[in-house]
Specification:
about 325 residues, mainly beta, Methylamine Dehydrogenase, Chain H, 3 helices
């Protein structure tokens, strides 16, 4: 598991042991991984897109990206091996870029979309090569087809309503309704309800459409944490989308994850100085504790400032 906080740190965790193994010095807004998990694209608050080799704790490449002061998001198109970012220009226009991870010196294309204040949330279907862009506060969802050759992206259409969305989430591909040729489903968070939005390809035949539904990602890990931290790579597991062959469709999955006993019961250690009656040692310990309190107060002040910046963004 990967987490990023307002302390300019990103951490990779083994959730079974509740231990972090890798710490990145990066002020990240959004991240996306390549198909086998060996590389991570990260969009940072300093307006740069960086490519990381997480297990070496190193930056592979970086480039200037969207120059607006608001947030940005990143997505990795696995089937064409391209990186997609969406953010803002200096004059607050919403904008997207497509990048080749093999050459991050400049984006393959840059395209301005419109002038609006809401951050665009990208969702990508690798099987149909369709990208969905949903803006916070918008009532519409734009969708595009992605190609592995210039101009790389083609506008298809948009879904429109009068109700603005406060957030958006996507149903896992293995759970869509193949009988109605549903290729993607979004869940739109409104003020007091969640509305499903189904995207379907019109077909007259009732037969399973193999061209629309190749094997999709399965909800099972390809590696355990120890293997991945040890340097192993693996292609993700997939499942057939055919009715009767998709063992995940319509099945309630039980929560089989349990943290280790050590992770569940071990409290964080507090490092205190040894007990002493020596006046000189007491003075030294007092100075060390005073310095620790001072450092913690500075760190707390910095965190509060960053939280205020995040809330105002």
């Amino acid at each position: 598991m990967f987490t990023a906080g307002v302390n300019d740190k990103g951490k990779f965790w083994d959730i079974e042991t509740a231990k972090d193994h890798i710490t990145l010095d990066a002020d990240l807004q959004s991240v996306a991984f390549n198909r086998n998990g060996s590389l991570m694209a990260g969009y940072c608050r300093d307006k740069k897109l960086r490519l990381y080799d997480p297990r070496k704790n190193s930056t592979v490449s970086e480039s200037d990206a969207h120059q607006g002061t608001k947030g940005a998001r990143v997505n990795w198109f696995h089937n064409v091996n391209k990186i997609f970012t969406v953010g803002f220009t200096k004059i607050a226009e919403r904008q997207f870029m497509i990048w080749d991870p093999r050459d991050m010196s400049k984006p393959l294309i840059t395209q301005d979309i419109d002038v609006a204040s809401g951050l665009l949330m990208p969702f990508y279907d690798n099987e149909s090569s369709v990208l969905f862009l949903a803006g916070k506060g918008d009532g519409n969802v734009r969708y595009y087809e992605i190609k592995d050759e210039e101009p790389y992206i083609y506008f298809l259409s948009e879904y429109k309503t009068n109700s603005p969305q406060r957030g958006m989430g996507a149903l896992p591909k293995y759970a869509v309704d193949v009988n109605s040729c549903e290729i993607f489903r979004l869940y739109k968070l409104e003020n007091n309800k969640v509305t499903p939005i189904s995207f379907e390809v019109p077909r007259k035949s009732n037969l399973f459409q193999e061209d629309l539904f190749p094997d999709s990602l399965a909800p099972e890990p390809a590696l355990n944490a120890a293997d991945w931290f040890g340097g192993a790579d693996a292609e993700p597991k997939t499942t057939s989308m055919k009715p009767g062959e998709n063992k995940y469709k319509g099945v309630a999955r039980s929560n089989t994850f349990k943290p280790s006993a050590e992770a569940a019961t071990k409290a964080p250690e507090t490092k205190l100085p040894p007990k002493t009656n020596d006046p000189k040692q007491l003075l030294t310990q007092n100075e060390e504790l005073r310095k620790r309190v001072e450092d913690l107060e500075k760190e707390l002040f910095s965190v509060k400032q960053k939280l205020a910046q995040h809330e105002s963004a």
